[in-house]
Every structure is written in structure tokens, then in C-alpha cells.
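Need a sequence for this fold. Nothing fancy.
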């Protein structure tokens, strides 16, 4: 799984790790706005790294948590879905709008392999000072460059370089910044 190799989705060890993550995210999602210290404590336990002065607003959903690394001063609005079967790295000073999806899992197109519950994953990287508008979907294996802006509702299917504005489905670069 970590190396991008195929794995069985119903592996007992992975199910136990997923259950741990669900318990922690459920606790996080039940917190109130006043419970900032408790939110941070939960996220530091759940995530692989959670940078100084970063914030995630609930609800937040992930597969395992420990594969997510978030840099300093990053803001994540309501409703992030971060399927971290593969690594998800989010840099410093990143802004993520509401209802964004970061999707690392891949599924075979072969019906028999899919029916047997085989999956794989490819990592996602969001470089420092990027901004993902509301409803953006980032697909497996994508890197979004430093200082890049992705417009609301875009579906990012391939890497985006730094310092560009990308919009649409599939996301395409409309200008340099």
C-alpha cells in the first residue's frame, strides 16, 4: 500500500487502522468551535504531521490519517475528504476551500481484479502557498505546484506547475500568476 503496490482493501490490519482513524475523526467532528486545543490534540494523534498554526474545520474524513502531512499555517475549510491510502503532503500556507476531495486510491479496471477487492494508490502533493477553491477534486498521483490557484469545482487529473491558475474539468491552465 505505502509503495503503491496493490493491496487487499479488506486486510484485517488495514481495517484496524481505518477503525482507529474513524474513532479519532468522529471525536474531532463532534468538537465545538471553542475546543481548539482538543481539536489540535486529536489531529496531532490522527495525522502524520500537523504544522504550527494550521487549522482544519470539521467535518473532516480520511482513511488512515497517518499518511497525511500538513505544513504550518495551512487552513482547511469544512468538509475535506482526504483518502490517504497513499501519502498526502500539504505544504505550508496552503488554503483549501470547503468540500475538497484529495483521492489517492486507484481501482483496477479489470472486473475480476476489482471484485477480488484489489486496490492501489498514488500520492498527492499540494505545494506551499497553493489555494484550492471549494469543491476541487484532486486525483491520484497529482502534484500541485507552489503558489498555484485551482478554481472552484475543478477536477485536477494531472500535475500543475507552480504559479498558475487552473480551472475546469479536467483542470487546465488559463494563465500564469
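Here you go.
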Amino acid at each position: 500500500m505505502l509503495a503503491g503496490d496493490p493491496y487487499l482493501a479488506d486486510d484485517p490490519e488495514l481495517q484496524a487502522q481505518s477503525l482507529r482513524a474513524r474513532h479519532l475523526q468522529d471525536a474531532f467532528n463532534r468538537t465545538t468551535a471553542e475546543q481548539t486545543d482538543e481539536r489540535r490534540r486529536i489531529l496531532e494523534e490522527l495525522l502524520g504531521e500537523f504544522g504550527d498554526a494550521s487549522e482544519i474545520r470539521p467535518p473532516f474524513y480520511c482513511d488512515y490519517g497517518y499518511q497525511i502531512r500538513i505544513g504550518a499555517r495551512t487552513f482547511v475549510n469544512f468538509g475535506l475528504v482526504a483518502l490517504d491510502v497513499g501519502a498526502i503532503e500539504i505544504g505550508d500556507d496552503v488554503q483549501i476551500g470547503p468540500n475538497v476531495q484529495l483521492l489517492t486510491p486507484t481501482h483496477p479496471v479489470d472486473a475480476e481484479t476489482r471484485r477480488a477487492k484489489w486496490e492501489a494508490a498514488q500520492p498527492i502533493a499540494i505545494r506551499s502557498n497553493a489555494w484550492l477553491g471549494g469543491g476541487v477534486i484532486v486525483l491520484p498521483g497529482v502534484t500541485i505546484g507552489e503558489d498555484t490557484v485551482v478554481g472552484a469545482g475543478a477536477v485536477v487529473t494531472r500535475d500543475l506547475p507552480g504559479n498558475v491558475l487552473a480551472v475546469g474539468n479536467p483542470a487546465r491552465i488559463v494563465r500564469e500568476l
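For context: Residues 11 and 117 are 10 Å apart (CA to CA).
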